[in-house]
Design brief:
The protein is mainly alpha-helical. β1 and β2 form a beta hairpin. The radius of gyration is 28 Å and the shape is globular.
Length: 329
């Protein structure tokens, strides 16, 4: 997992207000990093965990103890950690999964859901340990509020004027155009997504993802005008879009799979962050976007077919003669 060499986030202001080792029955003294400790204290206070039932508080104590252990590992492995936001949430979740698995702690739970048809189905969800990491990340992101709100009113971004410093020395992709995204809610979520990704990925990669989202938005505007937000998107819509890409643009299977894969990253990330108006369950899986080799059928020449048929014919005659000879013995 990579960590930015020059952290863009600093929640040092929290240390003055939330410089505490204990809150009610929650003991944070084991956390070696003062910045991460103050962020945990802020989360506990913000979510009013001390007001929860005793049973709930005991559950959170277990979750927090493991998260503190994980933070201590980060503090040793990466120098100068100023905030949980120093890390990409996707990579951070993967690393925490590895940490929990190594310590034989479950990373998922099975829940039973009652559908509208009154049928019960079982589904896998993140365990409470993983959910706590995601929730802490979200709360601190809201607190920092480092996004220039006025910048989000713009539909064209120039990275030279961006609120945070982005390395554009190796790319020509410095202008990001959101005007073609017709759905207001999807446009806003896309801006949040691209803003977040620009801090961890190259401008070229982010620009490519924006183009993919714009194309999909245009498709929704024409063929699914009732779709106004990401939560309205279904697997059937994704399937139709995949077919449409092949028919309208003549795009190969592998290129279409690449487009769907980028949409998968977009939808899954917004789902992880639980931003308003996003999906609450995964609708695209790895097997939907798997690439296949571009194999071409091999056709036999007419002469080869004749020889093959002749071989089969004479072999049949030989086999019948051989069986006849055996039966006469």
């Amino acid at each position: 997992m990579n960590k930015p060499s020059n952290p863009k986030i600093n929640t040092s202001k929290l240390i003055n207000e939330y410089k505490m080792d204990t809150i009610d029955i929650f003991d944070l003294s084991a956390c070696s990093n003062q910045y991460l400790k103050s962020e945990l204290a802020y989360y506990i206070t913000k979510k009013k965990l001390n007001k929860k039932s005793e049973a709930t508080k005991k559950t959170y104590i277990l979750f927090l103890a493991r998260l503190i252990d994980f933070f201590n590992v980060l503090d040793i492995e990466y120098k100068e950690v100023y905030s949980i936001l120093d890390f990409d949430i996707e990579e951070l979740e993967i690393k925490y999964k590895e940490f929990l698995t190594k310590n034989k702690i479950s990373i998922e739970k099975t829940v039973t859901v009652l559908l509208a048809s009154m049928n019960k189905v079982s589904r896998k969800q993140r365990s409470g340990y993983l959910s706590l990491l995601i929730n802490v990340y979200k709360i601190i992101e809201e607190y920092v509020n480092y996004i220039d709100k006025s910048y989000f009113d713009r539909d064209i971004w120039n990275l030279k004027e961006f609120p945070i410093k982005i390395d554009i020395s190796h790319t020509s992709k410095i202008n990001f155009n959101f005007t073609e995204i017709k759905q207001v809610d999807i446009k806003y979520i896309t801006k949040k997504y691209i803003y977040n990704r620009l801090q961890y990925q190259s401008p070229s990669t982010c620009h490519s993802r924006l183009i993919t989202i714009r194309k999909f938005s245009n498709y929704l505007y024409i063929y699914y005008p009732k779709v106004k937000s990401l939560k309205d998107i279904t697997y059937e819509i994704i399937e139709d879009y995949y077919i449409w890409l092949g028919i309208s643009d003549g795009i190969s299977h592998n290129r279409r799979s690449s487009c769907i894969s980028q949409l998968e990253k977009f939808l899954n990330f917004t789902m992880i962050m639980e931003w308003p108006g996003c999906l609450n369950e995964q609708i695209i899986f790895d097997f939907d976007t798997s690439e296949i080799r571009n194999l071409k059928p091999n056709y036999l020449k007419e002469e080869e077919i004749f020889n093959l048929n002749a071989h089969c014919f004479y072999r049949t005659i030989f086999s019948e003669s051989y069986r006849t000879c055996l039966s006469m013995k």
